[in-house]
Amino acid sequence: MTSAPLAARLREVAGPLFFPVTAFGPDGAVDPDVFRAHVRAGIDAGAAAVFACCGTGEFHALTIEEFRLAVAAAVEETAGRIPVVAGAGYGTALAVQYARAAEEAGADGLLAMPPYLVVADQEGLLNHYAALAAATGLEAIVYQRDNAVFTPETVVALARTPGIIGLKDGLGDLDLMQRIVSAVRTHRPDDDFLYFNGLPTAELTGLAYRGIGVTLYSSAVFAFAPDIALAFHRALDSGDDALANALLDHFYRPLVELRAQGRGYAVSLVKAGVRLQGLDVGEVRTPLTEPSAAHVKDLIEIIASGRTLLEEHAAEGHSAEGHAAPGGRA
Question: pTM surpassing 0.85?
Fold first, then answer.
């Protein structure tokens, strides 16, 4: 953990936000050494922040002791170079326990997941996140998805809540997001509330979200193909529409279509991708299941297609400065 506020550090990021998978050993237990290697590789590849033990990291499957162990490992590897944000979820009491465990482990902030199972009204959701934000000294990002969907008025209230610095959107309703951004801007014109595109494979909707001013996004692809994720991020920032569109057409769209072929593939397909790059992070925990052999073969071909595009782009004389080599490891 560093003394610099999380909001300020995230406002200045120059790369994708890294959501590592949680490594499990042959015995099914969390493997902190392999997890550290995974985090270290992401940092070396250019991650702007590490979001440990969140959705891609199977937060739902971790005991609080395992959670604390993994978050501490991420903090050790970053050594203050980039911020570490940890997941916190379930009902209010358990979410507070996870938040305090994250703080004890040295995290810089929290990604506040939706409450477990129940569908609450706006007042209940606001009370939940306010209690979570008040429980520690960590700044929190609220994750909108599933059973936690907010009206613009509620997000204005969240933005006024001490300790809450942003909203990550995993819903994908751009009309709602535009109204949220407008409402917060209207009622808090001097506020620097942060917004994140948190859809699975967020790059596919990156251009649309940028249209309403949302430039920060989570990148699951960075976990297994950091060279592709970085190239796409830089293409968006530099206005290289040719490369961005080529990657959308021949890498990201096929990847999203493959992800849609299996339940839980937003996690298990990513974990398979990390293993394909040479790091044995183990399989997903139940109730998730592994992708089929045929789908893993499809994933191999999609990754190869993305890297071929990068090679062709570089051969055409475009700058490849800062890109990982086509065979880079996650």
Answer: yes
